[in-house]
Amino acid sequence: MAGKIYGVGVGPGDPELMTLKAVRLIEEADVLAIPSKDRESCVAYKIAAGAVKGLSKKEVVPVVFPMTKDETLLKRSHEEGARRVSELLDQGKTVVFLTLGDPTVYSTYLYLHKRLVSMGYESEIVSGVPSFCAAAAKLSVSLGEKAESIHILPGSYPVEEGLSLSGTKVLMKSGKQLKSVKQLLLSKGEHGMMAENCGMDGERLVYKTEEIPEDAGYYSLIIVKDRKEMR
Measured between alpha carbons, how far is 199 from 230 in angstroms, rounded to an integer? Predict the structure, then answer.
């Protein structure tokens, strides 16, 4: 009988924000699949290690997804990842794939999930605390009140159209685009706040658009609020 895979969200960075279900499934898993080349370089693994004792004794299988927008390379890596995991499932093993935040929000796990489901394997998605919720809490700001809309935007892609929407805008994973995103926010007179490495070492909180650093790392998230909502 084939095993089952769980796509488990470990939250944004603070191990104490991991769910009880996530901890239990990790403890019970036969194998951990990680989106990195090894344990040492996997942020999701390090978060889980802060909440689950004895994690170093677990079998770990790297499933590497390249940081690229090249569709050919991405398809190839998704196929290879599904193949590696399917071999474990065919052995009847229970696999937990660790992913940052929540698996349904811009997560590479979903590509793997879809392929394995289409191949006939049982796969379950387990929610985690989304990074934008944790960032809003750290910045002490609401994401939505009353009729206020909330828009989640991929910061590494063009966001100008999304910024024209009313309500709160969340720009995720701006990374290398931070300079252009900041300039766009300033030109539009938008009120932006940033959380970098939320819940992790090196956490940095910024409350004004003009103070957003252009050299912030990959795990940087910007929350844009209508100025009238900030009064």
Answer: 24
Return d(Cα 47, Cα 157) in angstroms, integer. 27
Instruction: Count Cβ atoms within 10 A of the Cβ of residue 6 and give its class: 0-12 exposed, 13-18 middle, 19 or more buried.
Output: buried
Predicted confidence (pLDDT) per residue in 124-174, tens digit: 999 999 999 999 999 999 999 999 999 999 887 888 899 999 999 999 987
Q: How many CA atoms lie within 13 A of 7 on its CB side?
A: 27
Sheet (strand 122-126) strand order: 59-62, 31-34, 95-99, 4-9, 122-126
* Residue 26 host element (H or E): helix 20-28
Query: The tokens 């065919």 sit on which residue?
Result: 90
82 closest CA partner among 105, 112, 54, 38: 112
Cα 18-67-150 angle, rounded to 5 deg? 55
What predicted TM-score, i.e. pTM, was given to this entire model?
A: 0.91
